Amino acid sequence: MDHLPDNLSTVEDFLDNDAFRAWVLERQPDDRVRWQTWLAQHPEKRELYEQAVITLLTLQGKTIELSDQQVQAKTAEIIDQMPNTFTVTRPLPGWHWGRWASAAAVIGLLIWFQLGRSSVNPLTKTSEPAKQPIADKEWKIVKNVTGQSLVVLLPDNSSVLLSTGSELRFRKQTSYALREVYLQGEGFFEVAKNPAKPFIVYTTNLTTKVLGTSFQVHSFDKETTAYVKVKTGKVTVTPTNSPDKPIFLTVNQELKLGSATKQLIKHDHFVSEEGATTIVSQQFTYNYTPIPAVFDQLEASYHMPIHYDRQLLRDCTFTGQLNDVPFLEKIRLICLATESTYEVVDNQILIHSSGCS
Q1: Domains in the chain, ordered, with CATH?
Q2: 206-227 b/e with 16+ CB inside 10 Å = b?
């Protein structure tokens, strides 16, 4: 099944869906990608999805024969025993599976089941009750409706230049094995290098995985084309409809998903796209360049105000290549070279310096 329905609005809708039951019970890699993509498109339904997972996992275990009335009573009993931190919608009264597990086991299974948490052993016993992550506390959603690109600073020091009309969803903490973000729209990513924690961008059509590099992803739900352009480093791109066929891209290469046939086309150079962000081909290489000129370029490219004493820094220069580092790392390296400091206040950069002697 290549496409999942958009009209899953209740726990019962999930339980009635063949694709959902197959994913929860069989956990096939192809289904994982499809449901990750679906959740990226519908972040507001994550809590409902998790409720459905709890309910379905609750129905796993030893098969026994129960009447409809017994099914209703047993379902109510299990749900009533769940901790208060869970809000579970009761499943359909006529559900005929009659498979039951203890509430404690369900909690453990749910944590094991969470996307990106496969390392947790669901059978491991613990003296402390497991805590269920709450979606709105664990994730942050940024919607850019400013009319121009917006810099989004991620907790791992990576940065995203998010195009207007786009949305980015990412975890607030860095304690996870993967750095995962969900993009709807277009973003230019500059990823902080961390070989131990891969950085993954999920979109409707493509999944992009890197360790540390800069690249642009374009995938709007209402558009028929999608593409990834690599500025620096290396990435692997996996089409949603071909999860077992990752495609390798390196510097100046791009992968485009065709509009009509959904055919993937790989180019060894950037193809001009209408309205594409020019930052993917812009160079940040300097040779004794005056600091005001450097800051002017960064401010214009990232649409983030940089406040400093222009007169004080007019004789300061910078030499270096900043193409493969995130936005704040660019600022930090410039400040290091000029014995300056910086701070981020209300999405603006404030530079503090004594000038150059």
Answers
A1: 11-133 (no CATH), 136-279 (2.60.120.1440), 283-352 (3.55.50.30)
A2: bbbbbbbbbbbbbbbeeeeebb
6 φ, ψ (degrees, to nearest 5):
-90, -10
Residue 350: what pLDDT? 96
Report field, pTM of the whole predicted structure over 0.70? no
210: DSSP letter: E
What are the start-end ranges of the H helices in 67-134? 68-80, 103-113
- The rounded distance, in Å, linking the Cα atoms of 334 and 317 is 9
Work out the number of other CB atoms within 10 angstroms of the CB of residue 81.
Answer: 11
**DSSP 8-state code for residue 5:** -
How do residues 89-130 score in pLDDT, each as one tens digit?
333 333 333 333 333 333 334 433 444 333 333 333 333 333
* Maximum pairwise Cα distance, the chain: 87
- Which residues 6+ apart lie within 8 Å of 121 measured at CB? 112
Q: With CA atoms as reference, report the closest residue to 149 among 334, 286, 345, 327.
A: 327
Nearest 5 degrees, angle CA 253-CA 215-CA 295?
120
Cβ contact 22:28 at 8 Å: yes
State residue 12's pLDDT score.
Answer: 75
Give the chain's residues under pLDDT 50: 1, 60-67, 70-71, 74-135, 275
Q: Which of 60, 51, 98 is nearest to 79 (CA)?
A: 51
Residue 216 in contact with residue 231, Cβ under 8 Å? yes
CA pair distance 71, 356, nearest whole angstrom = 78
Residue 103: predicted pLDDT: 36
Q: What is the pLDDT at residue 45?
A: 80
pLDDT score, position 293: 95
Interior angle at CA 16, CA 15 and CA 20, nearest 5: 60
Phi then psi dihedrals of residue 13, to 5 deg: -60, -45
Question: Measured between alpha carbons, how far is 269 from 279 in angstroms, rounded to an integer?
Answer: 15
Amino acid at 327: F
What is the radius of gyration, based on Cα positions, of the chain?
24
> What are the residues facing 261 on neighbouring strands?
none
